[in-house]
Amino acid sequence: MTVFNESWEAVIGLEIHVQLATNSKLFSGASTNFGALPNTQACNIDLAMPGVLPVLNEEVLKMAVKLGKALNANINSPTSFARKNYFYPDLPKGYQISQMDKPIVEDGFLDIELEDGSTKRIGVTRAHLEEDAGKSLHEDFEGKSGIDLNRSGTPLIEIVSEPEINSPEEAVAYLKSIHSIIRYLEISDGNMAEGSMRCDANVSVRKVGSEELGTRTETKNVNSFRFVEKAIQYEIERQISEIESGNTITQETRLYDSQANTTRPMRTKEYANDYRYFPEPDLLPVVLEDSFIKKTLEQMPEMPNEKKLRFVNEYDLSEYDASLLAADRDLANYFEEVTDESKSAKLSANWIMGELSAELNKENLHILNSKISAKQLGQLIKRIEDSTISGKIAKDVFEKMWSSGNEVDAIIEKEGMQQVTDLSEIESMVSKVIDENPDQLKQYLSGKDRLFGFFVGQVMKESQGKANPTQVNEILKEKLKE
Amino acid sequence: MALSDKELKEIAYLARINIDKDSFPSLKGELEQILDLFEKLNSAETNEVEAMSHPLNLSQPTRPDEVTEEDQREKLQETAPSVQSGLFLVPKVIEGED
Amino acid sequence: MKLHELSLKEQLNGLKEGSFSSTELTKHYLDRISSFDKDLNSFITVTEESALNQAKESDERYKSNKALPLDGIPIAHKDIFCTEDILTTCGSKMLSNFKAPYSSTVVNNLSSDGVVVLGKTNMDEFAMGSSNETSFFGPVKNPWNKEYVPGGSSGGSAACVSAQLASAATATDTGGSIRQPAALCGLTGIKPTYGRVSRYGMIAFASSLDQGGVLARSAEDSAILLESMSGHDPKDSTSLNEDVPNFLENIDSPIKGMKIGLPKEFFERDLPNHVESSTKEAIETYKDLGAEIHEISLPNVDLSLPVYYIIAPAECSANLSRYDGVRYGYRCEDPKDLEDLYMRTREEGFGSEVKRRILIGTYALSAGYYDAYYLKAQKCRRLVANDFTEAFKSVDLVLSPTTPDTSFKAGEKSDDPIEMYLQDIFTIPANLAGLPGISFPCGNHEGLPLGVQLVGDSLKEAQLFQAAHQFQEATDWHKNLPEVK
Q1: Stretch A75-104: mean pLDDT, rounded?
Q2: Chain A residues with CB inside 8 Å of B90's CB?
Q3: Phi, psi (degrees; rounded to nearest 5) at C202
């Protein structure tokens, strides 16, 4: 349990809104494509014209069922919709269609990995479907705001955790886990910067050992993993400081300011939060037949946890490596393709987590946009395994592959980078080096064992890096003994 | 059934309807009369009764995930009170629900 | 016989036989509208030009033998149905400038069957009222006696059909808004089973209670129109996925042996003599036709009024939140900030009855009151519905007076909301249970008509039409229509 300021603990719950990647909206047939001109993807239903009615998109039910399974939760059938009433210009009907009692997913959990390697189980209270609101634009309108309802009606699923998270790090681990799952399931691209995944944090503090919960605040407007961590950290410290100064915590909604790294209260009237939920009369209860659920679950991909276990067992990877590779579905697929080609899981994992990740990060590329394909990397590793090139030379080849896009063999051929494995060649190089360095030889023989490395280096230099290091080592050892 | 002034003000705000001072008392009286009607429900025994939100005992139909609506911005904004660059204009929104 | 005196069925035959054209018929009605409607105020919008175009097209179809089922029949639509590019006001200042960007399914269904649309009729604002006195466009007069109200909320549709300014009209019924005006204006009004008629494009008042229906001069006429309006609509999730039967199939079959129930709770009420006697007469007529009369009980029916006045306002308080001056409709002048925009637009755009109901509904849903009011009402609603389910185990139809009295003078009840609400005590239960109900004329007292109501089991409209039609074959009440001057 993380302790703050020596005697405090934090109680955190996360509400994560995930935009579902459907073609059309939750209740209308308008498109959900990102980036369209204002109000060109807002039909009469999205505009709440008089007389319009909602009709449910079947794809969201499939997505919710898959998510429920991945969260180890119950799928509720029937499940129903409710109206959440409030006034805001980006909410055309003056109510949001959401779910109250009987949300589609309920009572699940997620096992997250903590930094020390241990696992912690975080309960997932519920996940429910609701429609997104539009957007308000504030610049360029001289004292007015412009409302764009393209986003209005886009399907969201809100995932609510139990307040069982106790530190900013745990919060991020949970968030990353959810992120990984929704991308694995292909139900969302989970892009926090673009808003397809949004996180609100409910934070309260209490003295270690206390059974009572402190007053909680809700913090919004955190749009990256890093900001989630910082915002929660700030809020915990702020609350502790307030209480220790003799003040009480006000139950309120706060906005995170990423520039100042602070949170401040939002200005809304108290009773304005009476949402007056009641069952949506324009929609009937949704019944999910067993056959529908079964068919949907059959289409589920292998999930991160299962994949990680399989990587450990099948490829003999360490838990750490397996975890890293399994976290992103595309990365995991890439790894398996590389291994398929190279036949060496360990080397494949190393190269991906090492050189390849470095290049991808440098150019801010996702694995899907890697300039070296999985097959190509696999072939590179194959050439190391079959001793065509040394590991060291391979790094050069890798760089050339990345910048030119050419195939492994073509580059080795062109640059003449084949490893020298001819024993007689190496022997003659070793002999040459020994002859050319009598002082060092004398020192080595008189006990300076460290100079062995010097000789290796010289041979490698002599061979322009192409000598097989293992063989160099063996032959040097022998020759030096003489 | 009595309705306090405070309650009426809060309800009016929740419903975003301004009630001018002069109409306040008579409106309050009318609403209280209607609320009196509701007393009748107290005598009904409903412990084992399931709430009825629909006369139909059916389940929700669904539609396939297809885009069926095209851009109708011009037509839909024809009767809009205030539009600029395709956006609906309102007095500046400071912050609120999101 | 004058063209407007022909029933819809006779007009349809006349058009088919070429006795007259749709253009003649339509012009005839348009002339009557311009002569008489200034006084009655039953229309908000008359679509003269398009009506004549539609009539012309209809005539061409008849000539080339491609006539549609209702081709050329001039009707009116209650101004609650969206009609594309035509003013659709819902009787409110809030939508007084609103041209709908699309047409409702009901309008489309009828147009595909070839009707000619004469215009949009007046109504109580947002369908809330029982006298058509809350309309922004002024009250409607009862053609029987212009000092009296036509009923509401479909007062305009009722007045125009009663005054024979249209062959029939569409209307809606949430707590009695078709049946009560039918009774007050001497017409036949049908509210079908909930879900029979699509609500897409029918401006919402109370979603789980609203239903579209017909006001016509006979059961037969109303059946013809209802059939065209009805049917499954994928755009309305609450629309029934059932085939629309031929409502006229059994209409001429005798009703011998049909069981009619009389709820004792209704008949125990203190009603004026003329209501009691006309209802008794109707019961005798049914006995003569061979129906069996049984006393039944609907023990929870007295809960209907409070249940209705919690649920309907609750649903409407949310349904009317979209009227905020942002995307369409009325907007107050120079709003100084967002709050002002909402508060003043809605203060100025809505009339008092609408505001009362929104406030009541908001209250009933608010934290602290939801369980005691809204939830309790939904449970009591189940009790009312269960009573009917029980009753239909032993009877086919339930009979009662439609209204507690004949029409009343304009202004008489408009200051007393509860007095006004009591108009609906016989009609509301059918809406709560989602059952079909029909009202038709059964008497006349001091120059004002009286109506009797039959409520049937779910999906049994055909039986209602049959029973009403047989009554109309045996009596003449429905043939009496006021002379309009």
Answers
A1: 96
A2: 89, 144-145, 147
A3: -105, 110
